[in-house]
Amino acid sequence: MMRTIVLSTVLLTACGGASTNTPATSTNATPSASTTTSAAAATSPPIDDKAVAAATGAKTESADGVVKASFPRSDVPIEVDGSKLAPFMGVTSWVAFTPGKAGVEAMMMGDLVLFEDEVSRAMSLLLDAGVSVTALHNHFFYSKPAVFFMHVEGEGAVASLGKTVKGVMDAIGEIRKKTPKPLERSGAAPIADKSAIDPSKLDAFFGVKGASKDGMYKATFGRAATASCGCKIGKPMGVNTWAAFAGTDDAAVVDGDFAVAEAELQPVLKSLRASGIDVVAIHSHMTGETPRILFLHYWGRGKSADLAASVKKALDLTAWDGKTQST
Q: What CATH code is assigned to 199-315?
């Protein structure tokens, strides 16, 4: 409940809710943060709970001008450390709507409870519809099946945003109808026990000298940032994008980590998913750094050249050492 209440105040400012065209109450004073937020809230009409219910197909509840739609994950039994977990205990997907900035009906935020075989489908549907995916992580240890939480946000018409959410829920329903028990493997054949990746081909492709060990290959791309202490941090301190390959050139796996500025996150996610690369985590590694750096972890399978092309395409959307692109 605390998260829902905060939506109506803090998040409006974060999404640009304050209107620069709203006149101040005094010509000699700058509006306070509270005055600006109140003005922002008045720029769009209140959210219609019936409209949210109709668009999402879910039951709704309202508090402080926010309308919340919930989707309990009661379709699959979930255990955490040997104990059954009810939807009330944090395994309920939800999206909440609050009035948007001037000219925008609504701003939406939410948290979707997903199993491993649902994550990529849900992410692609959201990104294709213009909804941002802002975090992906776990909330539990020892959960069966493994449970992931995808945080989302978007702006627009209630009908459009709600339709996207409903589409995701319908897709999840289709997956569970086909396989009631969440899959524990993708079904792809295991890679060769002994790796034999050609490093020279990937060096030429990436334009950097990668590291090789036991037939595997890894390329690392550092980027500069400043820690909260004012210290310069970069590649040696873990502020980097990397890609590691194993298997053979014809049947390889790639996994790695992208270090992205906030403005780069959505383009990189869209690029990776369009190439069939699974995004398995999105989170922060630091606090107080400049620029703010987010990290996304990924996994892909295929020919090493195709996987490298997918990674390089996404990499070129970011700033990194040796590449002059504004962060």
A: 3.30.1460
